[in-house]
Design brief:
Helices cover 37% and strands 17% of the residues. It is an alpha/beta fold.
């Protein structure tokens, strides 16, 4: 299964807001609808967002006359780049598409060239997911109980995932005893999405509230923690789904290894440290509602950042497609 794929020159997007109860797809070649899918989290996960964005830019000129190529492409570029400000893969993908456009804008086959570039970005992510999993096997010294946060499987990428793909391959190699899945409030990507993927993979798991992780660690029931990352800076400071920083602090206190898993493209080579990371703040109603059910008064004040920042000193290692990076993190000399 894929979270996003190109079918007959339209995007087929698995609507993740309906999971795990309904598997429903969105078929569209409309840039505005694709942008909304990213904003509404119908498609989510840094690599999957980047792939979706790349296809959107290719499709932006699908039905355009040649004299409007530039206008339509850059309108799409400017629309897509404001959908999710934190995930670096979005900007990596659209900048690759922009470079491709600039180099080929006089070519009469520009649409096909852009579409092939988007497919290349997608296929590359599939390969990166497998390399991440293979590199991640080395972090296991025994059959382990693992805790993970948010969703990092095929729903979040173009391939089989990042952190969850490490878990999948470790399970296939008899290195996973059990997986504990943080529910991941407020949008429950753990209890809705990661649990759904683990069920399909037939990996034993238990859903916990985000606040239960500390108690499990106190009881020595967690051997290591693996999460994804949406942006990693040059010194290793990293942004991931809100609640990840909590886990890093807990792991540091309980002396439990804490790993991030992400493609090397998630490393923002233009950002020196955490002060350069822009954190997306989302609508407060995501806190006040679960599905269509209101859980408190709508007029209350609320703070709803989508991500938090993990300082590099709390990270044991960063698993990428190239290798596992350890402190002091050096991403320039690879």
């Amino acid at each position: 299964m894929y979270s996003v794929e190109l079918v007959e020159e339209k995007l087929k997007i698995l609507d993740q807001t309906k999971l795990p109860f309904i598997e429903e797809y969105i078929f569209t070649d409309n840039v505005e609808r694709i942008a909304q899918s990213i904003e509404k989290l119908e498609v989510r996960g840094a690599p999957a967002i980047g792939i979706t964005a790349a296809y959107a830019l290719a499709l932006s000129i699908k039905n355009s006359p040649k004299e409007k190529y530039s206008n339509d492409f850059f309108c799409a570029y400017n629309r897509i780049k404001i959908t999710r400000p934190t995930a670096v893969n979005l900007f990596y993908a659209i900048d690759k598409m922009k470079k491709c456009f600039d180099e080929n804008h006089y070519n009469q086959n520009l649409y096909e060239i852009l579409l092939n570039k988007a497919k290349e970005i997608h296929l590359n992510d599939i390969k990166l997911c497998e390399l991440i999993a293979e590199n991640g096997l080395s972090i296991f010294s025994k059959k382990s109980n693992v805790l993970t946060h948010c969703n990092t499987g095929f729903l979040a990428t173009g391939g089989n995932g990042t952190a969850l793909n490490v878990i999948r391959l470790a399970f296939e190699n008899n290195l996973i005893e059990h997986v504990f899945v943080d529910e991941t409030r407020p949008l429950l990507q753990g209890s809705r999405l990661t649990a759904w993927e683990l069920e399909k993979l037939k990996i034993p798991f238990t859903i916990i509230t985000d606040s239960t992780a500390a108690f499990l660690m106190q009881q020595n029931k967690i051997d290591l923690v693996i999460t994804g990352a949406d942006r990693i800076t040059l010194n290793g400071d990293s942004a991931n789904k809100i609640g990840t920083y909590n886990l890093a602090v807990l792991c540091n206190y309980h002396k439990i290894p804490f790993y991030l898993a992400a493609p090397f493209t998630t490393i923002d080579l233009n950002s020196s440290d955490k002060t350069k990371i822009k954190i997306e703040e989302r609508n407060k109603n995501e806190i006040f509602e679960i599905g269509s059910n209101k859980i408190t008064k709508q007029n209350y004040s609320a703070y709803n950042p989508a991500f938090d920042i993990i300082p590099n000193e709390l990270i044991t290692g960063i698993i990428t497609d190239k290798k596992i990076f350890y402190k002091p993190f050096d991403f320039k000399n690879v």
